[in-house]
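Chapter summary example: a protein plus adenosine-5'-diphosphate.
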Amino acid sequence: MSRIVMKFGGTSVANVERIRNVAAHVKREVDAGHEVAVVVSAMSGATNQLVAWTTEASPLHDAREYDAIVSSGEQVTSGLLAIALQAIGVPARSFQGWQIPLRTDESHGAARIASIEGETLISRMTDGQVPVIAGFQGLAPNNRIATLGRGGSDTSAVAIASAVKADRCDIYTDVDGVYTTDPRIVPQARRLERIAFEEMLEMASLGAKVLQVRSVEMAMVHKVRVFVRSSFDAHDAPQVGPGGLPPGTLICDEDEIVEHQVVTGIAYSKDEAQISLRRVQDRPGVAAGVFGPLAEASINVDMIVQNVSEDGKTTDITFTLPTSDQARAIQILNAKKAEIGFEALNTEADACKVSVIGIGMRSHAGVAAQAFQALANRGVNIRAITTSEIKISVLIDTAYAELAVRTLHSVYGLDKA
Ligand code: ADP
Ligand code: ASP
Ligand code: MG
């Protein structure tokens, strides 16, 4: 007997028929003698609709009320799944974040989990009941509902798995695992049997939205074994495949992976904006003057390039940031124009970051050079580059995004045979 947390994403609970299918998956695990807790997302599209309504009501709205509204999608699916489970003879009860309670900090809209009371859930499970938990939401210190940022049900699931000391956290979605790149963009993408926490963290933070970044961070810190799999596989399909697990991807410690490829995957993100400050005074403290105020405003700057201006006396500073923060950043920098000492601010929203990720890079030279050459051969111009031990990112025009992803995927031998 194991204790399992099963999480179902938006497409898996998109309507009542799919919720019945989810109930059948849950029943299979219960019938196999496991203790099960379930975490659900809202029906696909529901959260987008709720967000759109809040913006329509007022573009600048109170974040506490935003959370009261957008958390409601999960309330619906948790109740529906509890009913669907009861209907097939599985004792089940829905739980909202505040009923557990799953406590968060006060950052409404992107709250972090502070603590989870596991006792109630554990005692329900040992009594043979399935708690069906509304993902994405918790209770803030001000006694109000807080949400965990888009895609946050993954994080709810991993955190709950850790709190109830589950043996595994199964993330059921609309693809049967983590692929070498987004299978919707590159049909040649291959499913990975295993991927190391660190690589998954890079993949997720560089654009592979199959898991929310924080869920991977949490799994890594609390050593939760996460298994990504499809809810569209038949619920009565064999549960043990060739590798001892059904089709899916296990996210695990690096040393559980026997053979490392040099490159594990390619990720991309189209939500990048680029800002260039032209003719900045070249003196100590300038970078701090630019990036300090942005950090204070919680704006995450990513790639930074500094080069000599056309006049040869001053410098140009170019950096990238999420498109959603672009307007705010421009406002902040323009307000500090005299203090920082730059002449002009140029900006482009049309940028895409493509990244090559792999733990194997640590011990292999020439991986970056290979990427640059392959992109050059395809006529793709690189605007900026950043690297770390296990990843290389390039910033390119969005128009070339898919070409670049496909090119790199094939250059590193990731295409399926
Ligand atoms: P859910 O609603 O179940 O949370 P998401 O839409 O958040 O599902 O995540 C699943 C999607 O992630 C897939 O449909 C796929 O298009 C996308 N995706 C992006 N990169 C990858 C990748 N490397 N492997 C698998 N899926 C990926
Ligand atoms: N329903 C939320 C969203 O769409 C949370 C999630 O699906 O994980 O972002
Ligand atoms: Mg998701």
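Key point: The first strand starts at residue 3 and ends at 8.
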